[in-house]
Amino acid sequence: MSTTDDTVIAVRGLKKSYGVSANRFEVLDGLDLTIPQGDITCILGRSGCGKSTLLKCICGLEDVDGGEIDGDTDDLGYVFQEDRLLNWKTVEDNIRIALESNDIPSEEHDDRIQHYLELVGLAENATDYPLQLSGGMRQRVSIARALAVEPSILLMDEPFSALDEITARELREKFLEIITELDQSVLFVTHNATEAAFLASRIVVFEHEPPAAIERTIDNDLPYPRDIDSKEVQELKREIITHI
Ligand SMILES: Nc1ncnc2c1ncn2[C@@H]1O[C@H](COP(=O)(O)OP(=O)(O)OP(=O)(O)O)[C@@H](O)[C@H]1O
Ligand SMILES: [Mg+2]
């Protein structure tokens, strides 16, 4: 199975379990999912239903037990649910390490670091160490780190959940601008139904309990730019909530 022109990642029959023998626990048991080119696919589902496990399998952080993941998984960026910053490196060096490991030419590093730190509102904190930052600031550094690489595909695991609502609103708007400009494809996990209604072109709701299965897929055809407070976004939010 390979991807088609308008699909950047195709997951087929994905299986993943944790533990052994009697303690074996199936988190993914034959899951199918595609990430369409240029789309923002939002995944929602109850805590523990397998969302982060799916993202970790796609990016290769977890070995899978079966099934296929096709697509250009080398050109992929990840915002983890936890920020995973190196506390002994400055903010700018945390981003630089990601640029180096993705073979971004060194002459571009300073500009990209500055640009993406400005975007997340942390230009003044470039030489701080992560332990000097609040949880929401650390999360914004991890967002800047993933965006700075400018990957074709972004996997984002609750990236805005640690932010106050005003900062989250600003970042969602900027995020939409960037991914439109760079024509990126996104798989985005959130617990926030309003955020999904605002950002997503497609919303996938998982069943309550693992193994993860798709309870409902909702296409979101509302034209961009959207107003998060609009009647249409709020109506869609209510529809999403009925399926969670
Ligand atoms: N490394 C691990 N070892 C054992 N069990 C794990 C491991 N990682 C996750 N699990 C279990 O797998 C299930 C799915 O976890 P996962 O982190 O994918 O959930 P999630 O949908 O992302 O939840 P949340 O919304 O709380 O982040 C949970 O029951 C969890 O306890
Ligand atoms: Mg999770």
UniProtKB/TrEMBL annotation:
PROSITE patterns: ABC_TRANSPORTER_1 (PS00211), ABC_TRANSPORTER_2 (PS50893). Coiled coil: none annotated. GO terms for molecular function: ATP binding; ATP hydrolysis activity. Keywords: ATP-binding, Nucleotide-binding, Transport. The keyword ATP-binding applies. Transmembrane segments: none annotated. Residues 9-233 form the ABC transporter domain. PANTHER family: ALIPHATIC SULFONATES IMPORT ATP-BINDING PROTEIN SSUB, TAURINE IMPORT ATP-BINDING PROTEIN-RELATED. This is NitT/TauT family transport system ATP-binding protein/phthalate transport system ATP-binding protein.
